[in-house]
């Protein structure tokens, strides 16, 4: 595997039609845990930077975000906690369900997904400036991409047989995680968005 921009771009495109092949190629790199955690930290920094740029281009009322999430440093911390939590969840929950995957592969899954997502987010920001409708479609497609790639990477990592069962399990845990995250955001001072009175 090469780490040139062209090769990585090709792999990113291949992730949608052949996610399990891309997963095998990435897992076969055999990167150690320290390298993977460093890569994850880099993804956190890049994701936070992109969020700051997007906020400058499309500002959101600070009262809606809350005093903590309006701070880039805190936003980066939240991004990091979410990515770390996702990697640990892929590993721990997968093992509890009988999987044989490694923590290294779980971290690699999150790193690669975030790498591709960063590309999608850059395109989304650009499209928002010139074609908002297409940007909205790409955002919906990104949700599909998230579940598609997470499901197949998890299947490949843990050696599961049924992608459908893995997808259902992910959906259930995601719903539970959303409730937990909503509670945490309330504690951080993020206000629910109020619709304007008619």
Tell me what you see in this structure.
The protein is mainly α and 198 residues long. The chain is 79% helix and 0% strand. It has eight helices and no strands. The chain has helices spanning 5-14, 19-27, 33-57, 62-69, 72-96, 103-130, 132-158, 163-187. Helix 2 (19-27) packs across helix 7, helix 3 crosses helix 5 and helix 3 packs parallel to helix 6. The longest helix is centred in the middle third of the chain and has 28 residues, at 103-130. It is globular, with a radius of gyration of 18 Å. The relative contact order is 0.13. The mean pLDDT is 84.
Mean pLDDT, all residues: 84
Helical proportion, percent range: over 70%
What is the tally of helical segments?
Answer: 8
In percent, how much strand structure appears in the residues? under 5%
Total DSSP E strands: 0
Describe the sheet with the most strands.
none
Shape: globular
Termini gap: 57 Å
Overall radius of gyration: 18 Å
Order of helices and strands: HHHHHHHH
Low-confidence spans: none
Give me the secondary-structure category.
mainly alpha
């Amino acid at each position: 595997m090469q780490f040139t921009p062209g090769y990585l771009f090709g792999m990113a495109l291949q992730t949608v039609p052949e996610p399990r092949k891309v997963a095998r190629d990435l897992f076969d790199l055999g990167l150690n845990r320290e390298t993977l955690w460093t890569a994850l930290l880099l993804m956190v920094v890049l994701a936070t930077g992109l969020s700051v740029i997007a906020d400058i281009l499309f500002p959101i009322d600070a009262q809606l975000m809350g005093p903590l999430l309006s701070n880039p440093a805190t936003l980066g911390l939240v991004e990091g906690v979410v990515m770390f939590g996702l990697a640990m969840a892929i590993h721990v929950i997968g093992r509890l369900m009988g999987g044989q995957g490694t923590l290294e592969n779980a971290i690699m899954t999150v790193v690669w997904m975030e790498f591709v997502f960063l590309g999608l987010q850059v395109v989304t920001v650009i499209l928002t400036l010139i074609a908002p409708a297409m940007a909205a479609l790409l955002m919906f497609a990104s949700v599909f991409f998230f579940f598609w790639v997470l499901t197949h990477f998890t299947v490949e990592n843990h050696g599961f047989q049924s992608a459908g069962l893995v997808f259902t399990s992910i959906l259930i845990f995601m719903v539970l995680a959303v409730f937990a995250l909503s509670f945490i955001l309330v504690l951080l001072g993020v206000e629910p968005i109020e619709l304007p009175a008619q």
